[in-house]
Amino acid sequence: MPDRARVSSFPPVADGRSRVLILGSMPGVASLKAQQYYGNSRNYFWRIVYALFGESAPHERYEDRLRFALAHGIALWDSIASCERKGSLDSDIRDAVPNDIPGLLRQYPGIAVLACNGAQSHAVLLRHFGAAPEVMERTVLRLPSTSPIPTPQFRGLDERLRAWREALAPFLSLTS
Predict the structure, then answer these.
(1) Residue of 40, 43, 99, 117 marked catalytic
(2) How far apart, in whole angstroms, are the C-alpha atoms of residue 176 and residue 174?
(3) What proportion of the chain, given as a percentage, has pLDDT over 70?
């Protein structure tokens, strides 16, 4: 379709301290334009990550946000390397090519948890790599999307933060 553009995700953000890999699906239009993970200021992601570690507000500078995540053992990547999509909705993703998640896990064996930010990320991970030993030997979580679009179960930031905190609490000590 002429109105669908092929878009590509960013390189992973990870280092030897990484213990929890948060996997999005594919960056949205605002994030792609800014060339930043969760670059849409309306997305709850950075507020949730900071709140998980007792911080009230994210740093202004993107580089400081990445440093904060890495310092707390949080790695970032996307399940999808490239796809065709009009706009930012996961439901519009077509012809998805997955990122090499098993390869990243071999490179950073300290990652113990794969936390999927939303249903699409989780579905892509399991469809392509659910039987891969690198994935099977780790905990895989499906978290509610940090998108600001309300759902019946998750109307806003508070409900999403509560779900993320509950799901990740047993693993956050791994990141200290």
Answers:
(1) 43
(2) 6
(3) 94
